[in-house]
Amino acid sequence: MSATITIEDAPGTWVVRAGGAVIGESSKALILRENGYPDVVYFPRSDIATAFLDPSDTVTSCPHKGQATYYSIQTKSVTLKDAGWSYEDPKDAVAAIAGHLAFENEGVTIEKI
After folding, report:
1. CA gap 75, 17 in Å, rounded
2. pTM higher than 0.70 for the full model?
3. Using 50, 70 and 90 to split pLDDT, how confident is the model at 109?
4. DUF427 domain: from which residue to which, for each copy (predicted)?
5. Cα(37)–Cα(46) distance, integer angstroms
């Protein structure tokens, strides 16, 4: 079965918080929808406080999106390992997410404000 992936502009303004701190806010976020998976909000890298991000050694590969690189988020009290990721050179079908970061972890909150 092949994946059905759609990418569209995320309406409104979106925020990502880690450890209580806002690390990004964007009105230019994207929503990636993939069959069988929860929707994922991708933030333009320019809208993220990248000083909170530490590159990780983790790399994964998706047959539909390409190779993902991961980032840990350093909060005041804890490091959230591999809490963010990006596809630096995504496959053509999902090229819109190039230059964007997505987040997921117990200590990360993403919401529309």
Report:
1. 10
2. yes
3. very high
4. 15-105
5. 26
